[in-house]
Amino acid sequence: MNVLTIILMAVLVFLSRYLFLEPKLPVNLSPYMQRLLSYAAPALLAAVIGPIIFVHTHGVNLSVQNPYLWAGLCTVILIMLTKRILLTTTLGFICFIGFKWALTLSSQTL
Fold first, then answer.
1. I want to staple 70 with a disulfide (CB 3.0 to 4.6 A). Which of 47, 75, 86, 99 is the partner?
2. How far apart are CA 66 and CA 104, in angstroms?
3. Rounded CA gap, 68 and 56, in Å?
4. How many beta carbons lie within 10 A of that of residue 71, not counting itself?
5. Orientation of helix 67-82 relative to helix 85-109, angle to 10°
């Protein structure tokens, strides 16, 4: 049953991509639909990253001791300045490690 489900999902995903990517098929989207679909990637990214940044074991964490929040803000600023995904991803990871280290160190001294 699991294998059949995986195969059917793979076929469904392939066909849904194929319909939009095959140039010989007469599928034309209106400008409104094209504009609407341009928001799909940012919405998906926000849905994936939002809980990672804000939700932790005890609920929503908006404190200044949240390294995910600081690294997320740093990464947003970096992508706005550089417009380079690989550089921003690398520097975002470095920011997260730095903020996690600094916040752990500061909480141990308090």
1. 99
2. 10
3. 10
4. 21
5. 150
- CA distance linking residue 95 with residue 79, whole number of Å: 13
pLDDT along the chain (110 residues), means of 10: 92 84 76 88 90 88 90 94 94 95 82
State the SS3 of 43-101.
HHHHHHHHHHHHEECCEECCCCCCHHHHHHHHHHHHHHHHCCHHHHHHHHHHHHHHHHH
Quick check: 27 and 20 in contact, CB under 8 A?
A: yes
- Residue with tokens 């909480």, as numbered in its chain: 107
Handedness of CA 15, 16, 20, 26 (dihedral sign): positive
Q: Name the pTM for this structure.
A: 0.65
Structural tokens at position 17: 């991509």
Look at the block and give the residue holding tokens 């799909």: 40
CA 9 – CA 3 distance, rounded (Å):
10
- Give the whole-angstrom CA distance, residue 89 versus residue 74: 11
Q: What pLDDT, on the 0 to 100 scale, is given for residue 95?
A: 96
